[in-house]
Amino acid sequence: MSLLLTGIAELTTNDPARADGHTDPGDGLLGIVRDAALVVSADGVIEWVGPVAEAPDADDRRDLGGRAVIPGFVDSHTHLVFAGDRSAEFAARMTGTPYDGGGIAVSVAATRAASDDELRALVAARVAEMRAQGTTTVEIKSGYGLTLEDELRSLRIARELTPHTTFLGAHVVPREYASDRAAYVDLVTGPMLAAVAADGATSLAESIDVFCEPHSAHAFDGDEARAVLEAGRAAGLALRVHGNQLGHGPGVRLACELGARSVDHCTFLDDADVEALAAARGTTVATLLPGVEFSTRSPYPDARHLIDAGVDVAIASDCNPGTCYSSSIPFAVALAVREMGMTPAEALHAATAVSARSLGLDRRIAPGQPAQLAVIDAPSHLHLAYRAGVPIVRALDV
Predict the structure, then answer these.
(1) Full-prediction pTM beyond 0.90?
(2) How far apart are CA 329 and CA 384, in angstroms?
(3) What's the order of all strands across the beta sheet hosting 393-395?
(4) What is the pLDDT of residues 273-311, one digit of tens each?
(5) Within this chain, do residues 62 and 89 fall inside the same structural domain, yes or no?
(6) Count of alpha carbons within 13 Å of 48, Cβ hemisphere only?
(7) Whether residues 66 and 77 fall in one domain
(8) CA dist 268 → 180, 246, 323 (Å)
(9) Whole-angstrom distance, CA of residue 244 vs CA of residue 242
(10) CA distance 199 to 366
(11) Contact yes or no for 171/104 (Cβ under 8 A)
(12) Euclidean distance between CA atoms 14 and 44, whole angstroms
């Protein structure tokens, strides 16, 4: 049965051509329609969008009572397949202990020790938690196994919950390879990648990622990261990069050079990095993860500078056990507005349309698009940052 949704005080379509012309911050970017309605088909595809006064008939009707509707959040950077607890590490950072990536080994040990059923239940609960906060699409990385068998297991479990899986065997060098880093890079680019990629139709991952961070003794330098990315590209995987999180380094420019879909963190950038990102607009997205800066007492990226320079900027949670155990995109949106110089409209667009682009998706509310929707218990998207910490947004089941 088709469903007509009415009572939408403000509908964010992410299609500027649909903006209804009223004066409002965000109209030009978000394509806002007020007093709106939309029709969803029986198979969950949007059939019609527009003012409620022009709405066609449908088999069923639901009134949303003057709430705002937005595209569901796209969380394009998460590490959800893990076991164990690192809250003590967070507490230590709050008293001055710096983050250097070493705590990942704690999660690796706990994840390796967990059963498939334990990991499956943990990941399912985290995805449900995200959906309760308006996230309808999630990317999930491996990276807490770091053996052939454990990386494949992580990706298989992630694949049960999302098609957007990323092979992150190059998260850190595991302890057993600390004295032979080259051998571990060979493992990642050889047997691991071969097993992950298999053939294009059955690959366990759509992307490959690498923690390119010379400022961490545990992560990978520029040459190692290049080897991982070029091998992944040859295997048919899209490229993603953790870059410039702990200090200036080669990650951002490497991502832009190789045509990565995204380079994530971008905390420490110089002029050449920003120029490279601007030149790569339309190909490489700078995905900012403000929850990490909150959780590590690090400086926030300058989103305002990036946007003004013409860079495609996305926002994601980076939900993980070490540097940001938060699954909340609304929290990330509020931080982006408060700490990174973004307008509420830019932050919402970054967490939906641009984040979707980094996964090769189109996140608009338009005919022919899947009905990936979220509803806000407020009349406007402005409440996402205005009411920080309050659970006012959730995925809309249709």
Answers:
(1) yes
(2) 10
(3) 46-51, 32-40, 3-12, 60-71, 373-376, 393-395
(4) 999 999 999 999 999 999 999 999 999 999 999 999 999
(5) no
(6) 17
(7) no
(8) 29, 7, 16
(9) 7
(10) 34
(11) yes
(12) 19
Q: What is the pLDDT of residues 311-326, one digit of tens each?
A: 999 999 999 999 999 9
Q: Same structural domain for residues 182 and 247?
A: yes
Distances (CA, A) of 338 to 270, 302, 385: 23, 12, 8
pLDDT digits (tens, 9 = 90+) for 38-95: 999 999 999 999 999 999 999 999 999 999 999 999 999 999 999 999 999 999 999 9
Cα 186 to chain centroid, rounded: 28
- Tokens matching residue 55: 């709405």
Cα separation values, 253 from 180, 207, 222, 280, Å: 27, 18, 10, 10
State percent of the chain over pLDDT 70.
97
> The domain that contains 139 carries what CATH number?
3.20.20.140
DSSP label at residue 179: T
Do both 17 and 82 map to the same domain? no
Give the confidence band of 367 by pLDDT, cuts at 50, 70, 90: very high
* Domain span at 28: 3-71+364-395
What's the pLDDT tens digit per position in 221-235? 999 999 999 999 999
Residues 187, 231, single domain; the answer is: yes
Place of tokens 């809250």: 87
104 & 32 share domain: no
How many domains in the chain?
2
Q: Which of 17-26, 142-151, 223-232 has the lowest mean pLDDT?
A: 17-26
The two structure tokens encoding residue 181: 């880093």
In this structure, the answer to whether residues 167 and 268 fall within a common structural domain is yes
CATH number assigned to the domain comprising residue 62: 2.30.40.10
Closest to 33 in 3D by CA, of 66, 61, 8, 67: 8
What tokens appear for 355 in the block? 């984040």
Q: In sequence order, what DSSP letters do the residues of 234-276 get, joined into one string? A: HTT-EEEEEESSSSS-SHHHHHHHHT-SEEEE--S--HHHHHH
Instruction: Identify whether residues 26 and 99 lie together within a single domain.
Output: no
